[in-house]
Design a protein that fits this description.
Phosphoenolpyruvate Carboxykinase, domain 3, 2 domains, five-stranded mixed β-barrel, 9 helices, alpha+beta, nine-stranded mixed beta sheet, disordered N terminus
Length: 340
């Protein structure tokens, strides 16, 4: 098979399947659709999807068909002989990936001992042809379809797509509380999963480890992803982004508005989820972060494990004039600072 040069011109899967299985219905058996942060993902495969099961976290993002913004991941279960091919300039080589570029195309070669795979992406990551081994079919049938690209994580291709849509994926937990989105940002062990557990009865969980902030014409929204951590609950829902809260475990429970842009920049930058961090990608994402700093209310959330912070978060989604919200009967008000 000689279609690794350009996935956009690869033999259409429907035509290929009709050669193999006359009368096959690609729509029903060999094509599935998913939606994340307004991006529709069409997954096509030679494998009959009726014979495999998508992981529950992926199934939560399944939709009936394409949308206005649709990207395509096309899967084949046979590997081309890439060793004999010129895949262009090597840009990155560290397990699990060797990444190169030629004629505007991106080539991702899996170099992990656990498996071999070649993925070819168009320049804008809207089209991909992914080649896996025949033995991967057995694993999929046994364990389920683990990610849309069959990579260890889908953020490899999703992160660059988001940058082109004024969006960013953050290491974060997110919920919808009182129809408003709250994004909890922090490093590992900062308390993201703990916060989600405390809010489980009051809020809809989007994801406890990876979430997307995207700027639409009507404003910022937070979108869930299927890349969860300790808590398996995920949702494809979204909501207006009310606030970003930087987690700080403490002996008290209070939410303090951050007003120093430099401090917000310093806190946000380490939480950006990166894929292949090219100069072009960084330029786009830094523009996104600048917009967040200027437009999205950001807070330091001090909390303990008592659950008292839940009441303060409920106040936050209702009140728009408090700089500091503390647990207990009193609040510290600053009329000179208005929370939009």
């Amino acid at each position: 098979m000689d279609n690794t040069t350009n996935p956009a011109t690869a033999q259409p899967l429907l035509a290929r399947m009709k050669e193999i299985v006359p009368g096959c219905d690609l729509q029903d058996n060999h094509r599935r659709y998913f939606e994340i942060a307004g991006i529709h993902v069409r997954v096509e495969s030679e494998l009959d999807f009726n014979s495999v099961k998508f992981k529950e976290e992926l199934a939560a993002f399944a939709v009936d068909g394409p949308g206005d913004d649709t990207v395509t991941l096309r899967h084949y279960f046979e590997l081309p002989d890439w060793e004999a091919r010129d895949l262009g300039t090597l840009l990155y080589c560290k397990a699990p990936w060797a990444i190169s570029r030629k004629d505007g195309m991106w080539f991702y070669r899996a170099i992990s001992p656990s498996g071999r795979r070649l993925a070819v992406f168009s320049a804008d990551y809207r089209q991909a042809t992914i080649y896996s081994t025949p033995r991967d079919v057995e694993q999929i049938r046994a364990d389920g379809w683990c990610s849309l690209a069959l990579f260890p994580t889908d953020q490899v291709w999703l992160v660059p797509l988001l940058a082109d849509r004024h969006a960013v994926m953050l290491h974060s937990a997110a919920v919808i509380l009182n129809q408003q989105g709250l994004l909890f940002v922090g490093h590992s062990s900062a308390g993201k999963s703990t916060t989600v557990k405390m809010l489980k009865k009051q809020a809809e969980i989007l994801c406890d480890d990876r979430n997307i902030a995207r700027r639409w014409d009507a404003g910022w929204r937070v979108h869930g992803t299927w890349s969860h951590g300790e808590i398996a609950d995920v949702s494809s829902a979204s909501a207006p982004l009310r606030a970003i809260l930087f987690l700080q475990q403490d002996s008290c429970n209070k939410i303090v508005r951050l007003t120093d842009p430099k401090e917000i920049w310093r806190r946000l930058l380490p939480t950006i989820i990166k894929a292949l961090a090219t100069a072009e990608w960084w330029q786009k994402e830094l523009s996104v972060i600048e917009s967040i700093v200027n437009e999205v209310p950001c807070y330091a959330m001090h909390f303990d494990k008592s659950g008292a912070i839940v009441t303060e978060l409920e106040k936050l989604t209702k009140n728009k004039d408090q700089r500091v919200i503390t647990s207990g009967s009193s609040s510290i008000l600053n009329p000179s600072v208005v929370i939009p």
